[in-house]
Amino acid sequence: MTPSRSILLCALSLLAACAPMAPQGSAVPVSWQPSPNFDERRPNFVILHQTTNDDAERALLTLTDPLKKVSAHYLVGRDGAVIQLVDERARAWHAGESWWGGLTDLNSASIGIELDNNGDEPFAEPQIAALLDLLADLKTRLRIPAANFLGHGDIAPGRKVDPSRHFPWKLLAERGFGLWCDSPPPAPAGFDATLALRALGYRGGAGDALKEVTLMDAAARAFRRHWAGDDATAELNEGDKAMLHCLVRLKDGNGR
Description:
CATH architecture of the largest domain: 3-Layer(aba) Sandwich
Low-confidence stretches: 7-19
Largest sheet: 5 strands, mixed
């Protein structure tokens, strides 16, 4: 055996000894051959929240408390101050159990932004101005599609209701952060709102008839909170159905 071959085999042996034999938690033995062809995660969604606190200081204490186990990438105060809490490349703990368009772990695919708001008040103008600047930066740098700016209540209907009905989704959509239809035409005859809610991204298909009704009721309320500014009822009126039909077409690239 040549000296160079001997050295190579020795080096490979050392690498194999130091390398993990299987993915963490896996019982399947695998060999390890590192590849240079990878990069860091690039989030594809932005999920907006409200803190439900009366001031940013209290929210900050919660979001940095190791015992609370909740966090977000950014906190935007009522005064427009923006605080970064988690590196964008890391997975913050803000979405919890979630679903959108088949994705079941939005934490791993999103940037979480908390807005300093108690849930019963309009969102402050300086805060929204700062948020719009932050969203513009995120959208440009991370190439996030307009349809992927959502609320916590959208991805966890029935469990979460933030941001509240006071949040200016229409304004955000006008700036390219979310979808909106102005004066959409009526939905066609036979329009199936349940299927349309699923097509838009809301969770459905539980396999249990009673649970399915509950899921779609929560989804309808979440939809009305986002696009009608009212979640007092889950019943979709003709205007809601028109908006829903238009949004699904817009998401599919067939908008007016």
